[in-house]
């Protein structure tokens, strides 16, 4: 089954954009970890909507574009010890982690 993110400025969701800096030889390892964490843990967290992982062409960045029903759901996940294990593992692989919550303000498509 294919799952797609619904990017819609009228939906009141919390959008997480997390930028990981990583050594190019560890980019695939980080994406595999994030995907496994999503399947094993994040998808079972209340308020989880979706997660998408993007690999930069130069191998130095991984972007996690995720959606949560609310900021409160996202913050509850951060406090969950099971989720923390995965986040701590990702922080070991990455040299820098920059998570930020956003609101979608405008969307465009053809």
Sheet with most strands: strand arrangement: 2-3-1-4
| Gap from first CA to last CA | 24 Å
What share of the residues lie within helices?
A: 25-40%
The number of distinct β-strands equals 4
Radius of gyration: 14 Å
How many distinct helices? 3
Main β-sheet: number of strands, strand sense, barrel status?
4 strands, antiparallel
Mean pLDDT across every amino acid position: 92
Silhouette: globular
Strand content: 25-35%
Q: Find the structural class using helix and strand composition.
A: alpha+beta
Descriptive notes:
The chain is of the alpha+beta class and 110 residues long. It has three helices and four strands. It has helices at residues 27-40, 71-79, 81-93, and strands at residues 14-21, 48-55, 61-68, 96-102. A four-stranded antiparallel beta sheet has the order 2-3-1-4. The radius of gyration is 14 Å and the shape is globular.
Q: What is this structure, in a nutshell?
A:
With 110 residues, the chain is of the alpha+beta class. It has helices spanning 27-40, 71-79, 81-93; strands at 14-21, 48-55, 61-68, 96-102.
